[in-house]
Amino acid sequence: MSDDSAYSKDRPFLARVTESRLLNKPGSAKETRHFEVSLAGSGLSYKAGDSLGVFAENRKVEVDEILAVLGASGDEPVSPVMLKLPAPIPLREALTSRLALKSPTRKVIETLAERATSAEEKSRLSSLLVPEAKDVLGAFLYEREFVDLLAEFPSARLTPQELVDHMRKLMPRLYSIASSPRAHPQVVHLTIAVVRYVTNHRERVGACSTYLADRVAMGQPTVPVFVSHSHFGPPDDGAKDVIMVGPGTGIAPFRAFVQDRIASGATGRNWLFFGDQHRATDFLYEEDWSAWLAAGRLARVDTAFSRDQLLKVYVQDRMRENAAELWSWLKAGAYFYVCGDAKRMAKDVDTALFDIVAQQGGLDGPAAAEFVKQLKKDKRYQRDVY
Hints:
Blueprint: E1 13-22, E2 32-38, E3 51-54, H1 60-70, E4 77-78, E5 89-90, H2 91-98, E6 99-100, H3 106-115, H4 119-127, H5 134-142, H6 146-152, H7 160-165, E7 168-169, E8 173-176, E9 187-193, E10 196-199, E11 202-205, H8 207-215, E12 223-228, E13 242-245, H9 252-263, E14 270-276, H10 279-282, H11 286-294, E15 300-305, H12 315-321, H13 323-331, E16 335-340, H14 345-361, H15 365-377, E17 381-385
Parallel strand pairs: 13-14, 13-16, 14-15, 16-17
Antiparallel strand pairs: 1-2, 1-12, 2-9, 3-8, 3-12, 4-5, 6-7, 10-11
Helix pairs in contact: 1-6, 3-4, 12-14, 13-14, 14-15
């Protein structure tokens, strides 16, 4: 019998990464990877729709850089206030696995302004703190990490303890699970966009995505993980149809849904909307979708590859093109799911859904809003957005 209480966010399981492969084809502008993480021996269980929490470590090169500009050895004992530790830990440990090296706030600018002994540095820092410079300060901080500030304002000497007290906790990253426990009971599949970019003339990385892609020793039990249970999941009634909208890495839970519905013998139809940049390089898990389509496990796959034509096409455009069919599925009791970017995609999909309900259902604004509200209430419209 599985015992989920043994391992949790507060006591993560040290898992093994057993597979890491690139999903994009050569020539893609993206780096999206498929990972397989073994939960063997953990007693952890998951269901389709759940997420895996991963605790990362920061890159050694970044930690070394901070220690260098701070003039520290890394052995200095620190007690970061937000960690509520029973005893101090070495600075290097705090910077490696406990604290986020990104996202400095106004507070550290205030501290540096107080500490700066150079008149020029003091003036620059103070100019960022005047009320009318709010937007300038925001843009300045957005471009920088803590190491940039320490390097740019060397006269403002901070002690190791002062630095860590300005930092935030390194939080675990939650990734939607891309597999079903019915198909893979002891293994979790993840679909992760590896983040690499440049700001302020420095190479930056996503701490967790590059931890898994670049720094984890394959097959070694070193990755601290936990299962985060979700209310997001396929319908209990396998006879219900499902419509899934998941562009980019938002595809992850829907791969789990389809695996799950096949394994459980669900008779309801499955309809997938997927979007990315180019069909030739960015059709994530194309082999799976094609095989399931050929076997009749998927009723439809509608794709939107935004850069393959002059005018960009997105998943919400494909929804509108298939409005009559989509409405007939919804009227017949289908469940509607969205996963991915909350800022734009999920809003655009929500607007498209509302418009389809209004037009195809012949409903005015308030009646269409009521229909969509009822879908949510009945758990027939679910979102996993980030």
